Amino acid sequence: MKPISIDRLSISFGPVRVLHDVSFDVAAGECFGLVGESGSGKSTILRCASMLTNIWDGTVRIGDHDVRKMPLAERCRTVQMVFQDPYGSLHPRHSIRTALDEGLRINGFDDREARLAQAMRDVGLPVEFLDRYPHQLSGGQRQRVAIARALILEPDVLFLDEPTSALDVSVQAEVLNLLVRLQKEKGFTYLMVSHDLAVVDHMCDRFAIMQHGRIVEVLDRAAITGGGATQPYAKELIGASLEYERAI
Amino acid sequence: MDPVLDIQRLSIRYPGALAPAVRDVSFTLGRERLGIVGESGSGKSTVGRAIMRLLDTAEITADRMQFEEVDLLNAPEKQMLDVRGKRMSMILQDPKFSLNPIQRCGHQIAEAYRTHVRCSKAEAKARAIAMLEQVHIRDPERVYDLYPHEVSGGMGQRVMIAMMLLTSPDLVIADEPTSALDVTVRLQVLRILDGLVRDKGIGLIMISHDLNLVRAFCDRVLIMYAGRVVETLDARDLDNARHPYSRGLLAAQPRIGGSREPLPVLARQDSWLEPLEADA
Fold first, then answer.
1. CATH code of the domain containing A93
2. What is the rounded CA–CA span in Å between residue B150 and residue B171?
3. Nearest CB to B254; choose among A38, A174, A198
4. Are residues B256 and A224, on separate chains, in Cβ contact within 8 Å?
């Protein structure tokens, strides 16, 4: 289990400043949520912290290490990401085996066949599915494959970028249950982007509300129903979500 | 009052598909708000598109498919051109894809109006601007001249609503009208749509996967599973749904302030394909 520490993270795309000195800490084994409207910079934080973009300023530390100074292989075995759309994040012409095996091969893992089978069992898919292609799987099964691909390198930290927003409620329930179970079993630290406060309330211990590339407020899960928000935008977002749900 | 839309035993099969996408769907719609919910692939959007007669390659059969005096099964395309966009219209999911990116927003609204109503360009523009005001756009003259990429998602969807309601249709089909929007603007857009639909007495079909949304903004709800309607009920009775599929969908939804127990998941059964018998 490793904590995440983000300090004064800033990034600009051309003249547009997308993140303004974002700082927050996630404890080891915690599930931390990032919420806010589209364009507020939630996913950009994940992309910076995982070094998918490297033109940012500030410091991101995972465990005791600065992500900028980690060698690529070590970084990949520390942090993995699950993307929003399982229809877009799996290569359509690679079998599930190829998709999962690639990371193992590159990182020189031994006993690959056993690890592939174990990863499939971990996410609740039949081992025979290794020889299927993405189009032969449903959306929920694809997202399970994406999760298997992330956890097969035995990372400490998982970045979840809207992991269920492309899925139906019924399938979302399965994937959320899987994520909760895996966190208990493997002690992952989760950093999860979501626009759905009900999902955040179900999964996260704390969450940050973002607007225009800044963190407006960091709140405890209890603040959603307890009215603990103090900033106007945080109140508005929580109010809109509660009103939208209309039933408890 | 006569129903706006009367559909009896509608079945739709896409060319080359093994099974029909929609099977024996029947409902009537008055001047009310009807929600159609279900998972992706349950056939809810297909029903909407069939009503608009947008599925020209699919094989459509029905005992009856009547929109006011128009027989949708047999009406020639020439007649449909007059009906579609004027007396029935459709609001699509994402304004980023449904608005023409290289035409100004206002121009698109005026064009839709002038397709159906003979009037001068100046009059169409005046009407478009008045309609933009009705969807609560503060500075309609300015927005009239903006391109779709220059407006936010919420505003784009209001432009879409303005375009679709300007010809005062009797039936509006809204296919996931707010799924692409943020929570904070979602309610605002829904309220605007809801207000206009009530004021003008329009029959609304709201296609959605979101049970909370149809509960709040519809009078009646059809629940679809695997191409069939498994349950029809009043929106306010949604929590008392009896079909195991409807109950499963409701239970699978995480709720703010809910327990953190594992969410109940659907254990799909073949018997769900049978619609629930309406007993007293």
1. 3.40.50.300
2. 30
3. A198
4. yes
